[in-house]
Give the backbone structure.
Amino acid sequence: MSRRDAKTSGNDIQRNWIVKSHALGNDYLVVDPSALSFRLTPAAIRRLCHRHLGVGSDGVLALVPTDRADFGLQIFNPDGSEAEKSGNGLRIFAKFLYDHGYTDRPHFTLATAGGVAAVTLHLKQGRVDQMTVDVGRATFESAEIPVTGPPREMIAETIAAAGRHLEITAVSVGNPHCVVFVPDLAAVDLRRLGPALETHPLFPNRTNVQFAQVMGRDRVKILIWERGAGETMASGTSASAVAAAAVRRGLTDRALIISAPGGDLRITVADDWSVHLTGPAEEVYAGTLSQDLVTTLTTLGNG
């Protein structure tokens, strides 16, 4: 059932309507706050995203008003904090808007806290199959990421974390990333090193973390520790950041495939460091929340 249909099918369908989708295993709940009877407070978001007590997801995507683009998107991490941008979230949200009748155009723009992104939809049998997203311009400047210390490009800088010395390249594509190139991903202790880098004093806003193994001039394999979410099967902005870092370090060509545990994304890094990614998203379900959960969320939303 589309959102257009839901609006005309009675209050039981329209009230507390929610969609769950994933992009290569990175899953989000998509909501139109006008259909919710509770507020999206950090506590309510944490319960919604809880794998046992709520619906379960890696975050929440909310349609919000904007005068900067065709649609506004607010992105929440599962810990209730707000994220500036998400490549997978952008694709999931774009598919939601088209498949549920908010737009019938294959090209439109989305405003996020990390900037405005243009989206192109690739259709298959009338539904969205793949999407190409203009992620934005990659920058390695410390003040723009942000990174503490004197102004500099954050290229191959050695830092101490979790008892190790790691060579990192930091980059922003509208949100912060810390990329560590390694010879063998199998030797990476992601659950120890990921949180140590995420919360490192170098990053005042915390950071997303990627460990990357270059497989060739056109392919890089990665593991992801996402800020506010932990180990993640896929991340569009992480893939974009790794691609930009690999190009900047001279390790790959400008068109490449980034392979995460959840699957592959096609990335291009232009001469001006603008990044485009192409990949899929898949809807899992659309429906209404139970009254039991809504009662709990209302209480948390009023707290």
